[in-house]
Amino acid sequence: MAWLIVLLFVLILCRVPIAFALSFVSFLGIMLTDPGLLINIPRKMFNGIDSFTLVAVPLFILAGELMTQGGISKRLIKFSQTLVGHLPGGLALVVVLASMFFSALTGTAIAAAAAIGGMMIPAMNKEGYDIRFSTSLVATSATIGPIIPPSIVLILYGVIASVSIGDLFIAGVIPGLLMGIGLMIYSYFVGKKHNYRSRAERASFKEIITGAKDAILALLMPLIIIGGITSGVFTATESGVIAVLYAFIVGKFVYKELEFKALWNILLSTAKTTATIVFLIGNAALFIWFLSFNSIPNQIIDMLGGISESPFLLLLIINVILLIAGTFIDTISAVSIFTPLFLPLVLAAGIDPIHFGIIMAVNLTIGMATPPLGVCLFVTAAIGKISVPKMFKFLFPQVIILIVILFIITYIPDAILFPVHLFNG
User: Fold this and answer.
1) Which of 17, 105, 233, 403 is most exposed by smallest CB count within 10 Å?
2) Which parts pass through the membrane (predicted)?
3) Per-residue pLDDT at 184
4) Does residue 8 form part of some domain?
5) Using CA atoms, how far apart are residues 167 and 353, in angstroms rounded to an integer?
């Protein structure tokens, strides 16, 4: 039955929608195994989406939409400029820093690429930055979005792997910061090399305080969410409700930039995105049940032989597979496919499932800024009005930096897990 996994990837390469590819492979496998089991299909699909935790997905999508429309991204960019705008490559540093702030609000890469890119790419053009550099940097910086909590990718992994969403959120902080710092160091040296110097002067302490006051309500939200989860005041799912309510109040009544007439389009966009994700998860649940019923993960372990007993080699192989897969499979789909395939292997090798969840998330989000399917690249290319291949000169060094950080995360687990142990211990 392991050949059905090969069929799944053949279907994906033939551009069959991933949800339908998963359901077809599962249906075919059940027919070949025992047609009498077909009666279980509706129940298994429903059980896969019948999860209170999954309610957090549409809530955080909605919160992200409300924040984008409510003027929060504009204030985060302005505050970032007061902090680093005067340095060499100042606007590039603003892009990365603002993406890190924005990531802590929305949990999605596409939202960060669109919101930050829409404001910063034209500004960088006016300052004489190479459009290839600015568009590629916005795309790679946006990949921090699904890593720094809250994160839709980590929520989905937590549901499929049955691990704590709160622990995943805590574990995502250090990797997200490392990714941001790596890209900021690169941007600083590019700024020095090409003499990208902002006309802005170093902000005074008073100006920094003023900028912080204007952005403080936006910056408080991730602290409220993480603080509430770790202290036990509310669950990760309930934090989504807090995020929506907070984003609406701040955008509508404090910043006064969120219009009631925009709410319909915001809700419609959220519903469409949620429906796609839920349909995919239902089919993924069927696929997971089919894998377990036929002991396919055990067959894969047997095929790998001694490699599955070596955490170092196993993680190396998984990293390579996920990096390649992330270039042509979208992140949500990849989590649904690879979590049930790889989780039994990593558990058998004694690898912490929280650690593996972060490894998977970082791997797959790097793919969002890597050709040929790097969706963030297409978002920023559209904003900058250039083709994706033109970005490659600046894009590849940035991707290499992210891969180096990925391997640090992979082979130094205590570097990311110590906050989890601190909060739980």
Assistant:
1) 233
2) 45-63, 137-162, 168-190, 211-233, 239-255, 262-291, 311-329, 368-388, 400-423
3) 93
4) no
5) 10
> At 197, is the secondary structure helix, strand, or coil?
strand
Nearest to 64 by CA among 364, 267, 237, 229: 267
Domain span including residue 313: 37-424
pLDDT exceeds cutoff 70 at 177 = yes
Tokens of 318: 């998984």
**The two structure tokens encoding residue 276:** 């796609």
Nearest to 389 by CA among 402, 377, 397: 377
- The mean pLDDT value for 11-33 works out to 84
- In single-letter form, the type of residue at position 259 comes to E
Does 146 map to a domain?
yes
256 exposure class (CB count in 10 Å sphere: 0-12, 13-18, 19+): exposed
Number of structural domains found in the chain:
1
| Residue 49 amino acid letter | I
Is residue 222 within 8 Å of 104, Cβ to Cβ? yes
Q: What is the model's pLDDT at position 150? A: 79
Q: Which residue has the tokens 């940035």?
A: 398
Q: How far, CA to CA in Å, does 63 sit from each of 82, 206, 371?
A: 26, 31, 29
Distances (CA, A) of 52 to 24, 155, 167, 236: 27, 11, 17, 10
Burial class (CB in 10 A: 0-12, 13-18, 19+), 130: middle
Q: Give residue 245's identity as a one-letter amino acid code.
A: L
Domain-located, residue 243: yes
Looking at residue 329, the DSSP 8-state letter turns out to be S
Q: Do 373 and 328 form a contact (C-beta atoms < 8 A)?
A: yes
What is the chain's alpha carbon radius of gyration, rounded to the nearest angstrom? 22
d(CA 114, CA 120): 10
What is the value of pTM for the model shown?
A: 0.83
